[in-house]
């Protein structure tokens, strides 16, 4: 076996490596320098955005984008130093061939990325806001470039793609300082509506946390089957979920106790069933039919059993016999 050819190739590779070694060392030094530059740019962006009172998520996004941008520039410069024949134009032309395919393959990722940037720029909600999206409701933990995470009230984490939040409707429960709560209370038809309204207002004013401005309200909203429904409405501040539940509990307890103590009825749902009596002589006559109401003292239709029935028509026996003997 002739090892001279292999030895010549190894020597050639060694000479090429030694010739390239200074460029490799210089490229590594350049990349390390760009690492420090990228860290400095990231810190600078954080300070600038923080001084302008930007949201925490937007500050984090801009600092990350600045850091990644400087790293990309550093990598391009490093390759240019290490491989003199390499130019950024060569890389761009190489990536342009597969750019369309990459775009289709990562369409959803790019869509969520752009939606995340728009959410951070427009800020329809922020970190620690409480939002509701479809069946999910909770506190916003993070707003990343791909998805937003919320912590539900029962201690679970939900990851929602940013494109979903950007396209669809989202309810922000903590967007404003105040929030109005309401609940319908049913009283009996025989109760005094004005008195019940006054008692409900007094009960709401006595609960801690209920705002006096705007003032509580009690409005008649429905004449139901068995109750007159009054809607209690009151405002709270702050409007977070814990405050909502605490205020709802206190107001409902106060209203119930106040109404019962003052003799206001809180009736159960009732239903009256009328049984139609189909044994009267007027059965089927819509002008005189009573539909099961009590008879009372006036004239009422007679029961069917008291109505005389006509006798059935009879045929003389001789005629019946003649009919039987008649030949066919």
Automatic annotation (TrEMBL):
Keyword list, A-Z: Cell membrane, Membrane, Transmembrane, Transmembrane helix
Transmembrane segment boundaries: 20-45, 65-86, 92-121
Membrane topology qualifier: Multi-pass membrane protein
Residue stretches of biased makeup (Basic and acidic residues): 302-328
Subcellular location(s) per record: Cell membrane
Mechanosensitive ion channel MscS domain residues: 108-170
Domain annotation Mechanosensitive ion channel MscS C-terminal: ranges: 183-265
Region spans: Disordered: 275-328
Primary subcellular site in the record, as a coarse category: membrane
Similarity field: Belongs to the MscS (TC 1.A.23) family.
Name of the molecule in the record: Mechanosensitive ion channel family protein
Organism expressing this protein natively: Hymenobacter defluvii
Taxonomy of the source species: Bacteria, Pseudomonadati, Bacteroidota, Cytophagia, Cytophagales
């Amino acid at each position: 076996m002739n090892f001279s050819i292999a030895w010549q190739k190894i020597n050639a590779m060694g000479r090429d490596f030694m010739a390239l070694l200074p460029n490799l060392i210089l490229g590594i030094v350049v990349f390390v320098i760009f690492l420090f530059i990228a860290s400095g740019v990231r810190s600078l962006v954080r300070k600038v955005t923080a001084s302008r009172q930007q949201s925490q998520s937007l500050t984090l996004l801009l600092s990350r984008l600045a850091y990644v941008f400087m790293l990309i520039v550093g990598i391009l410069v490093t390759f240019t130093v290490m491989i003199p024949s390499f130019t950024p134009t060569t890389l761009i032309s190489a990536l342009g061939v597969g750019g369309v395919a990459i775009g289709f393959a990562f369409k959803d990722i790019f869509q969520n990325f752009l939606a995340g940037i728009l959410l951070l720029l427009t800020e329809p909600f922020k970190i620690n806001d409480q939002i509701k999206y479809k069946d999910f409701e909770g506190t916003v933990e993070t707003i990343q470039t791909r998805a937003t995470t919320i912590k539900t009230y029962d201690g679970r984490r939900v990851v929602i793609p940013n494109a979903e939040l950007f396209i669809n409707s989202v309810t922000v429960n903590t967007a404003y300082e105040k929030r109005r709560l309401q609940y319908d209370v049913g009283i009996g038809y025989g109760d005094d509506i004005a008195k019940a309204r006054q008692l409900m207002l007094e009960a709401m004013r006595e609960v801690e946390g209920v705002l006096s401005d705007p003032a509580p309200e009690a409005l008649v909203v429905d004449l139901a089957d068995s109750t007159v429904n009054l809607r209690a409405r009151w405002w709270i501040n702050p409007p977070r979920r814990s405050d909502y539940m605490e205020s709802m509990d206190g107001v409902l307890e106060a209203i119930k106790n106040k109404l019962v103590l003052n003799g206001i009825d809180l009736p159960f749902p009732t239903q009256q069933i009328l049984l139609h009596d189909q044994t009267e002589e007027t059965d089927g006559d819509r002008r005189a039919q009573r539909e099961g109401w009590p008879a009372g003292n006036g004239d009422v239709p007679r029961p069917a059993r008291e109505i005389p029935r006509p006798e059935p028509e009879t045929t003389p026996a001789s005629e019946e016999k003649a009919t039987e003997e008649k030949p066919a």
